[in-house]
Amino acid sequence: MWGLGKTMKTQVQYFAKILFSLSFVAMVMYAVNATHIGSPTILIFAAAVGAYMALNIGANDVANNVGTAYGAGALTMAGAIVIAIIFTSAGALIAGGGVVETIKKGIIDPSKIEDVKVFVWIMLAALLSAAIWLNISTAMGAPVSTTHSIVGGVMGAGIAAGGWDIVEWSQMARIAASWIISPVLGGVIAAGFLLFIKTKMVFQDDMIGSAKKNVPILVALMSLAFVTFITLVGFGKIWTPICSVLTFSPDTQKPSFLIALSFAAIVSAIVYFLMVPYVAKRALTLNNNRADINSLFKVPLIFAAALLSFAHGTNDVANAVGPLAAINEVLTATTLENRVAIPLWVMIIGALGLSVGLALFGPRLIKTVGNEITELDSMRAFSVGMAAAVTVILASVLGLPVSSTHIAVGAIFGVGLLREWLIARKIEESHTSRLAIYKNEDEDVLDFIARFEESSLIDQERILCSIKRGKCILHGEDAHELTQEEHQHLKKLFRRILVKRNAVKKIFTAWIITVPISAALSAFFFFAIRGFLIV
Question: Which of 211, 196, 180 shows the shortest CA–CA distance to 395?
Fold first, then answer.
């Protein structure tokens, strides 16, 4: 399923994971059969496919929530997985999936589906194709959008069932636009936050004094963004009970943006007044350098990972079990409604599947998000988390279709590009001023970059170097000036190292082909299911 290892030990571990996954799917089938006596066989099969889909979402999509915290060193791999499992499951079971649109995101027109059996085939084919594509993407190490995967599946099966006219092409155009909107918004916002952190703290002579002033503000802003985000996307199911307790709250079906922002403002004010003494106390033990200032963001980063995981559980669990809920509704009520409630047993399958998939196969994508696009520290990872929350809020307010996966990866790409720009600017200044360069063939490029970013502005000016044939030239006896050729070579090499272009190309390619590949697979499965006459 998720790629063979190179050694015998790795292969044994891999097949053990496969066996455990198959056992989970078999247990789901047994449980559904035992608790739904007399139900059609296709419901049991659909439950198995839903469990398989949940496994793949756990393996691929959940990594976006904790990958940055892992890459920054704020969480170990085990810690990242535990936090993701707990908070994703909590989000799914507590506040997730109150109702789900059976015709996902309005991709196809339900009025053109005359036979409810055809609708069941469409949902089943869409679920199976999306799960298989996520499986393939995870094996390639490419984080892709689960929403786009299921959307492509619904579109492909819909076309197979009712022709091209059944598709709402205006909605598909909006989704295609999100391939650009999501990563660009995420990248710009993340780079903006990181630039603020560097300008207000890292580039100051008194880093500790600046951190005491700005870190509480940044963490309060993080609280504002995340509480608003979670209230908007996750409180739909539990909003009525909340209103019954908080009688002063407006009696609405779901929280509005102003309500969410008001709650968030109260929480962020509390967080700010708690952070001021915390940072002041921590500052007493810190040195005036970038590494110690960076450590102030580790605890907020852990909270960000937890909140992102909770929000993911509330919102995206429907991608795993929404089609299954729709199939269950049609088979039990024999009606085709546009929106249906998700039964608890369906939500449990989704929550358990996400957890099992993440525990077994999540580490690969967590490493991809955390390490393989650009090097992350707590400041950069904090900026990525902020970008994810702020971008989703902006998209919700403006009605823009965005992907949380695309936002997270675009944000990581954005902070990497900012690093490139800042260092390239310093290289340009060194070339213009013709600073002396010192040779040392023993220091490699990554060591140099790490030490370069730890240095003050004055020291950065002094230690800028030329890189030739993969070696860093620094602190030797033979000095020479930076030539034009070395200057260009240095900028290109930094660009290749700071943002790994091959990983980015692989991920963007997977994004572009997600909808068409899922659609093609879904059309195939629709015809296969109809041909076998499962129902």
Answer: 180
Residue 486 lies in a domain: no
Q: How far is CA 472 from the centre of its chain?
A: 35
Domain with 71 in it: 8-418+499-532
Residue 150 lies in a domain: yes
- CA-to-CA distance for 378 and 358, rounded, in angstroms? 23
Q: In this structure, how many other beta carbons lie within 10 angstroms of the beta carbon of residue 8?
A: 8
Contact 231, 259 (CB under 8 A): yes
What distance in Å separates the CA atoms of residue 130 and residue 147, rounded to the nearest whole number?
A: 9
Phi, psi of 153 (to 5 degrees): -65, -45
The answer to whether residue 176 sits within a structural domain is yes
Which 3 state secondary structure label does DSSP give 37? coil
Six-digit token pair at 250?
A: 């407006």
* Residue carrying structure tokens 């756990």: 58
Q: Are the beta carbons of 449 and 427 closer than 8 angstroms?
A: no
What confidence score (pLDDT) does residue 269 get?
Answer: 95
Is 467 a domain residue?
Answer: no
Nearest partner of 315 among 234, 392, 373, 400, judged by Cα: 234
Q: At a CB cut-off of 8 Å and minimum separation 6, what does 285 contact?
A: none
Answering whether pTM is above 0.90, one says no
Q: Which of 95, 78, 21 is nearest to 353 (CA)?
A: 21
Directed axis angle between helix 378-398 and helix 169-197, to 10°?
A: 140
Counting as low any pLDDT under 50, the low residues of the chain are 1-5, 102, 431-445, 457-458, 461-462, 464-480, 482, 535
Per DSSP bridges, beta strands 99-101 and 436-438 are: unpaired
Tokens 């079971």 correspond to: 93
Q: How far is CA 234 from the centre of its chain?
A: 16
Rounded Cα distance, 413 and 10, in Å = 31
Number of folded domains in the chain?
Answer: 1
| Beta carbons of 425 and 452 less than 8 angstroms apart | no
